[in-house]
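Weekly sync, protein design subgroup
Attendees: M.S., D.O., the rotation student, P.L. (late)

Item 1: inverse folding check
M.S. brought a backbone from last month's batch and wanted to see whether the design step gives back something sensible before we order anything. D.O. pointed out we never logged the input encoding, so this time it goes straight into the notes. Structure tokens as presented (291 positions):
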């Protein structure tokens, strides 16, 4: 059921909950007399770099980060429906999120320019050249991230970098990522649950992973956290992990979207603050849905 029809059905009492309500439909739901709850999704959208190509050097990844205005991306694409994401992978309000100050890469065209020039890039007629040739970056995105990809491309092109936005289906995207047939890719992965999943999402070989397995200190910390049983000591390990992630920037966290649910007065949906893993039963008796 599309969101508009779902809101109408809820207002008529035909359904109790509209899950996954688009942020743009909140006003309509409230006007229809429904209550709306919103929380950050903690499924941040990140810009992954192909570190086997142009972005092998950390300074190159930093240059692109400084060329991007994440606040404008959040405002233009999502209005009030997204926050600027934390750069250390885990997001604000989560138990595992570092209390240390991480680099935010506030937009700074001069810094981005200095980094590119130090890497041997040159600029001619407002366009950046690599080895005396203009560069067009291949930016992959799924359809839900098309608007974000276009807004991101606008910013990079304004800085002088050509961008070819490729909107792909899941199978095409998976194949391109596996083959490393891209320069940049917009991906979204949960930052919730047990932080051990960080290994799969960032270090592991999965097609959607950052495949950030070349950093010896990161690998040692991931092995250490897997053996640590004390929650607070494990959290301290992940403080170091996040510092490395934000500094090395295998991917640049862009925005953390909001997730909204509309409901009537009969019920009040519950947000599980750290998510629910697939396959783990919740102790609710089935007959509660019939009462």
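Designed sequence read out in the meeting:
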């Amino acid at each position: 059921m599309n969101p508009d029809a779902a809101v109408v059905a809820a207002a008529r009492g035909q359904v109790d909950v509209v899950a996954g309500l688009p942020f743009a439909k909140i006003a309509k739901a409230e006007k229809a007399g429904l209550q709306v709850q919103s929380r950050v999704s903690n499924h941040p959208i990140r810009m992954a770099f192909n570190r086997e190509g142009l972005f092998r050097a950390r300074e190159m990844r930093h240059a692109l980060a400084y060329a991007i205005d994440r606040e404008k991306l959040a405002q233009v694409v999502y209005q009030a429906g997204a926050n600027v994401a934390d750069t250390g992978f885990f997001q604000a309000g989560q138990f595992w999120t570092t209390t240390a100050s991480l680099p935010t890469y506030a937009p700074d065209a001069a810094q981005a320019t200095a980094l590119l020039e130090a890497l041997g890039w040159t600029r001619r007629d407002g366009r950046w050249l690599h080895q005396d040739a203009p560069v067009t970056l291949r930016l992959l995105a799924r359809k839900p991230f098309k608007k974000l990809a276009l807004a991101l491309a606008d910013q990079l092109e304004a800085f002088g970098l050509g961008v070819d936005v490729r909107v792909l289906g899941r199978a095409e995207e998976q194949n391109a990522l596996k083959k490393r047939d891209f320069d940049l890719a917009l991906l979204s992965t949960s930052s919730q649950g047990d932080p051990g999943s960080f290994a799969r999402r960032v270090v592991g070989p999965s097609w959607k992973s950052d495949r950030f397995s070349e950093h010896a200190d990161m690998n040692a910390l991931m092995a250490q956290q897997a053996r640590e049983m004390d929650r607070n000591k494990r959290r301290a390990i992940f403080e170091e992990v996040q510092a490395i992630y934000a500094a090395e920037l295998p991917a640049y966290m862009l925005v953390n979207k909001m997730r909204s649910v509309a409901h009537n007065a009969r019920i009040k949906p519950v947000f599980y603050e750290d998510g629910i893993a697939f396959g783990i039963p919740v102790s609710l008796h089935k007959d509660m849905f019939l009462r």
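Discussion: The chain is about 35% helix and 20% strand. The chain has a mean pLDDT of 91.
Action: P.L. to compare against the previous round before Friday.
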